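Chain A, query sequence.
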Amino acid sequence: MCTEKNDIGIYGLGVMGKSIALNIASKGYKVAIFNYEDELTKKFPETKNVTPFFNLNDFISSLKDCKTVFIMVTAGEAVDSVINQLKEHLSKDDIIIDGGNSYFKDTIRRFEELKKIGIDYLGAGISGGEKGALLGPSIMISGNKKAYEKIKHIFNDIAAKAEKDNKSCCAYIGENGSGHYVKMVHNGIEYADMQIISEAYYILRNVLKLSLKEISSIFEKWNHGKLKSYLIEITSKILAKKDDLTNDNYLIDMILDKAGNKGTGKWVCIESFNLGIPIPTIIEAAYSRFLSTKKEERILASDIFKKQNNSNDVIEDYADIIDCLENAIYFAKISCYAQGFDLLKEASKIYNWNLNLSEIADIWRAGCIIRANLLHEIKEVYSNSNIINLIFSENFKDYILNYQKELRKIISYSINNGIYIPSMTSAITYFDGYSSKNMASNLIQAQRDYFGAHKYERIDRKGFFHTNWD
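Chain A, predicted structure.
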């Protein structure tokens, strides 16, 4: 094997592609880089172990056998376009890795199409943003396991390492699109986690009327306790950041309250409907982003419908409310993760993936956006039992029993004061529904049978029944 050849090629030099290329090169691997538009290739910093190419054939020819190309382009049509270009230059047993946020069904399709011509296709869900891609992301890989075995040393080297045991946060998830599926659910949990934290910030700011400096300190304190996580940590830093353009203002106050999204949140919501698995906290987080974009309409409605303070509660002990809020956030997070892992569990059965839920929690412990101390416990739960749902776990049962009171208190006060906290509210209603021995669904079944003869089941005998209600 020619030692001058490159170990891997990176096609696509946007923010994530550039960072991944630098990460791989920093671990001693020889990296070929290529971009459809030459400008980004020209701007790539001169780096040891990195060789730029401006011709696709030269780029591919520079790679060792078996040739491995890591695609880092925008999900969708761009991925298909790049694959079509690469197919003309690759041979049997060569490997294409898709490191973007591709829709898992697209990954399944591409996996099957390339399999027919002998090219291995791996879907790599990568979480950690620009900094994570550069210093160590969490990586969720799926596809042909033999192909993964050929290049797993690269992924293990560039992935984040968990603090407690220095384990690489990279794993083979399963066949075809399972890696991108797990990344999609990760992003759904991320949506909910961010929304829950934002609701807590809003309560501290608009109900307790605390200063941003005080709120930043609260989040910093929380990050040393049970809420320790990347998102809590960066929230503390964000709230303390002054605005460079206006000097006297905090930057958070200068940012328009319209949240963006790139599709994965929508996909996970649609998937929950397809599989019939409730993930209301994640769905409400997605809805909140959609609602936030209606800024002009919200301003109009706020002028017309002046909110009244309907609460008789008088806040006398702010420290108690802050502690209460910390516990409420923890409860909401448990509920959120329970929903996400429930969806993964069902998907594993439906798509025959045999997902290892403990291993998924394991590789989320570092590198990814939702990394948190909570995941150490979730890993242990799924490694030691075949539990139905996280809320049944002995690890979390006491928290759920003890902290629901605090969350109900926060929700009640917020609703009475017209404070919008959809994800926190859905976290407790999910728990209330899941733990209800009886629900109002028997009336729904009666109504369906009345107008549509859809039949119903009885509690005293087996079978399906229809009644002539008139």
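The first strand starts at residue 8 and ends at 11. The radius of gyration is 25 Å.
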